[in-house]
């Protein structure tokens, strides 16, 4: 009896941030092996931070990712502030949420419309999609620009902004400049409602999994900078206990470490997890829009993460407008503090999910050790499991369609391989 | 008659993706770029891959593995014009900090089994491996400078990218010098402009993300920092950022001897 062997290969997975690959092995119609490989060359950030002064950390870690630099700045300053016993409250705390809103907007729209939407409609990219759907692509580009402009307004430029520091900001915007930005935010909010209705009508493959959703949770607000780490299966811990409950393992085929919940296994972080666990904390217009379109939670279809991404974009516009309406200029751009030795951790909601940083610092403010766990490393194991679970329905399809659908299933997670280390290669081998 | 559009390809090595993201951040120009160029290879944006040769190759990232060192030679052979974008590709990037220690020591901090991972001891710029036709500076690049480079290539002229210092830009912007007025150490005098001199406008010293300007007087500036009360080691570390391996910044420690 012959064993049926077949091989699918996509050497360079496109429309992800960074470089990675996938390997699916099928024997007689059975999936026998799935590997989601990340071979982006390692840049060794945790090592190059050792010996640096604490104030260099937000600028250096921002360079882990050009798409979500604010997330790295935020998790690092919160971790260092916990070492020094600093609390950032009031308008400074709000301004941090404001710059984060800008990043969520630009990053979510980039992924939803430039990288993910073309999969649903069968286009190689958004530029080609724009030929048939010019209005939707132009609207998305306009919204993305408003998000980028908000980051630049707060931090001087959209990629690697320069204003964030331990204790607050180097400089805060004056009230007039923020108020002058309200019309763009209102425009962005209105346009995002259209985008949300549009993604709700996409054709979603039927595929559901029993995920453990993990996100931050805060009693009063949709989580960004602060909160406890919670899950849909009962986890509820303070950030400082992260390493007691989560572990990372190195696998030979990937340059990124795989995360798991100790004693349980894979989990999902990102917009779908956040919205499933924090829907009641969204602001009114986003809540209403989701209710009107009949979006039910918990949503267990990862292809619908695109809806969660656009809904969070709408929320980010609402929240940015709220912050600007209530903004009073703080007396000082940053809180005064004394450097002291110790260990501190921080976890914030990057666009792609929770981003954990932990530092040991000497009494003169030098980093002694650093640990960084990006969202894509946390999703990696779960991505492999999705591929394994969806493979039986895909291997019946023509090769090109199956391959494309596997890619789309990876892009559901908006993997940022630059963060996790980088490069995605897709190989599907059938024996 | 069909117009022959220049074929453009975007390649990535060790980097954060931020510089190629700048292309997608040209929201108002992106669709026009799609009309004027054939986007033949740009994996971050497109699944469609058109074979080389290419008229323009934009390269992001530094060379950090033996495989990358091979790949950049193949890419060079495929590209009529090879342009590096950003500090990683033009100077080795932040990951070049390993160049002073070697990667073996760094690897064990991050990975339990470093033998699985293949990496070179040094992170090096593209120009240490192949001929580069134009280098665009910055961590990240200024997207409008990239647009200028692309427009210049379309027009068949040289790109107009100023090479004066950040200090000149501060003067043009009317920003009061923070080193003179507040004693804040600033790399502006030795750093090439291009960022718009944003850091001094935000009340902090320039951290050199556009790399050294032509013939920078770094040793003199370091002495000034030390006079301002900066420890020698910290003064050196100010240059050990995103352009640490760029000639002009690289030798800062040796320049202080004696």
Secondary-structure topology with pairs:
The complex is a heterodimer of chains A (431) and B (258).
Chain A: E1 6-10, E2 20-27, E3 30-38, H1 45-48, H2 57-62, H3 69-84, H4 90-121, H5 126-132, H6 134-155, E4 164-165, E5 168-169, H7 175-179, H8 182-200, E6 214-217, E7 228-231, E8 236-237, H9 242-245, E9 246-249, E10 258-261, H10 271-278, H11 284-292, H12 305-326, E11 342-350, E12 353-361, E13 367-373, H13 375-394, H14 399-411, H15 417-420, E14 425-430
Parallel strand pairs in A: 2-14
Antiparallel strand pairs in A: 1-14, 2-3, 4-5, 6-7, 7-8, 9-10, 11-12, 12-13
Chain B: E1 7-12, H1 18-24, H2 30-36, E2 38-42, E3 54-60, H3 66-78, E4 79-85, H4 87-91, H5 103-110, E5 134-136, H6 143-155, H7 166-173, H8 178-182, H9 198-201, H10 218-227, H11 232-239, H12 252-255
Parallel strand pairs in B: 1-2, 1-3, 3-4, 4-5
Kindly describe this structure.
The complex is a heterodimer of chains A (431) and B (258). Chain A is of the alpha+beta class and 431 residues long. Chain A folds into 2 domains: 6-40 and 399-430, no CATH class; 45-212 and 214-391, Cytochrome-c3 Hydrogenase, chain B, CATH 1.10.645.10. Chain A has 15 helices and 14 strands. Chain A has helices spanning 45-48, 57-62, 69-84, 90-121, 126-132, 134-155, 175-179, 182-200, 242-245, 271-278, 284-292, 305-326, 375-394, 399-411, 417-420, and strands at residues 6-10, 20-27, 30-38, 164-165, 168-169, 214-217, 228-231, 236-237, 246-249, 258-261, 342-350, 353-361, 367-373, 425-430. Chain B contains 12 helices and 5 strands. The radius of gyration of chain B is 20 Å and the shape is globular. At the A-B interface, helix 1, helix 4, helix 5 and helix 6 of A face helix 1, helix 2, helix 5 and helix 9 of B.
């Amino acid at each position: 009896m012959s064993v049926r062997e077949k091989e699918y290969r996509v050497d360079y997975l496109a429309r992800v941030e960074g470089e990675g690959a996938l390997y699916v092995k099928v024997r007689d119609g059975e999936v026998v092996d799935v590997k989601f490989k990340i071979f982006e060359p390692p840049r060794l950030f945790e090592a190059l931070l050792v010996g640096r002064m604490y104030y260099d950390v937000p600028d250096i870690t921002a360079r882990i990712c050009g798409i979500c630099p604010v997330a790295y700045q935020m998790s690092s300053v919160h971790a260092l502030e916990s070492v020094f016993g600093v609390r950032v409250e009031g308008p400074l705390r709000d301004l941090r949420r404001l710059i984060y809103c800008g990043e969520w907007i630009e990053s979510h729209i980039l992924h939803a419309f430039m990288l993910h939407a073309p999969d649903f409609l069968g286009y190689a990219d958004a530029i080609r999609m724009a030929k048939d759907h010019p209005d939707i692509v132009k609207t998305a580009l306009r919204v993305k620009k408003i998000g980028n402009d908000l980051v630049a307004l707060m931090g001087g430029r959209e990629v690697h902004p320069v204003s964030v520091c331990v204790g607050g900001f180097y400089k805060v915007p004056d009230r007039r400049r923020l108020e002058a930005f309200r019309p763009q935010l209102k425009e962005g909010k209105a346009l995002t409602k259209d985008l949300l209705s549009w993604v709700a009508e996409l054709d979603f493959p039927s595929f559901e999994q029993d995920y453990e959703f993990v996100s931050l949770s805060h009693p009063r607000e949709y989580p960004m900078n602060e909160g406890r780490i919670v899950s849909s299966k009962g986890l509820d811990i303070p950030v400082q206990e992260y390493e007691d409950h989560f572990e990372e393992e190195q696998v030979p085929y990937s340059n990124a470490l795989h995360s798991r919940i100790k004693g349980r296994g894979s989990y999902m972080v990102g917009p779908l997890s956040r919205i499933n666990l924090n829907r009641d904390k969204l602001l009114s217009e986003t809540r209403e829009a989701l209710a009107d379109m009949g979006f039910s939670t918990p949503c267990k279809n990862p292809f619908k993460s695109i809806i969660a991404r656009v809904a969070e974009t709408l929320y980010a516009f609402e929240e940015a407008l709220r912050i600007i309406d209530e903004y009073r200029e703080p007396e000082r751009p940053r809180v005064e503090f004394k450097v002291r030795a110790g260990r501190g951790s921080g976890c914030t909601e990057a666009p792609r999910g929770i981003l954990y940083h932990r530092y040991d610092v000497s009494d003169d403010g030098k980093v002694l050790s650093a640990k960084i766990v990006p969202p894509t490393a946390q999703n990696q194991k779960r991505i492999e499991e999705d591929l394994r679970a969806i493979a039986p329905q895909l291997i019946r399809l023509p090769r090109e369609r199956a391959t494309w659908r596997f890619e789309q299933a990876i892009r559901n997670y908006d993997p940022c391989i630059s963060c996790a280390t980088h490069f995605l290669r897709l190989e599907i081998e059938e024996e | 008659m069909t117009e022959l559009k220049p074929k453009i390809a975007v390649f990535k090595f060790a980097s954060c993706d931020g510089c190629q993201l700048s292309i997608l951040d040209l929201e108002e120009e992106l669709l026009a770029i799609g009309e004027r160029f054939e986007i033949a290879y740009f994996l971050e944006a497109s699944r469609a891959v058109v074979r080389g040769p290419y008229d323009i190759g934009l390269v992001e990232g530094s060379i950090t593995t033996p495989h990358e060192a091979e790949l950049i030679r193949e890419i060079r052979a495929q590209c009529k014009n090879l342009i590096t974008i950003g500090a990683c590709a033009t100077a080795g990037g932040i990951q070049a900090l390993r160049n002073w220690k070697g990667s073996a020591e760094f690897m064990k901090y991050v990975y339990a089994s470093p033998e699985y991972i293949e990496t070179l001891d040094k992170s090096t710029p593209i120009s240490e491996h192949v001929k580069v036709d134009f280098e665009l500076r910055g961590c990240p690049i200024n997207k409008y400078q990239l647009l200028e480079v692309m427009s210049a290539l379309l027009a068949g002229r040289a790109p107009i990218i100023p090479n004066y210092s950040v200090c000149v830009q501060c003067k043009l912007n009317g920003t009061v010098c923070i080193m003179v007025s507040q004693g804040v150490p600033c790399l502006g005098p030795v750093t090439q402009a291009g960022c718009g001199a944003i850091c001094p406008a935000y009340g902090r010293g320039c951290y050199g993300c556009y790399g050294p300007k032509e013939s920078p007087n770094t040793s003199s500036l370091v002495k000034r920092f030390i006079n301002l009360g900066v420890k020698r080691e910290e003064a050196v570390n100010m240059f050990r950022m995103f352009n640490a391996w760029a000639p002009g910044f690289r030798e800062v420690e040796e320049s202080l001897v004696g």
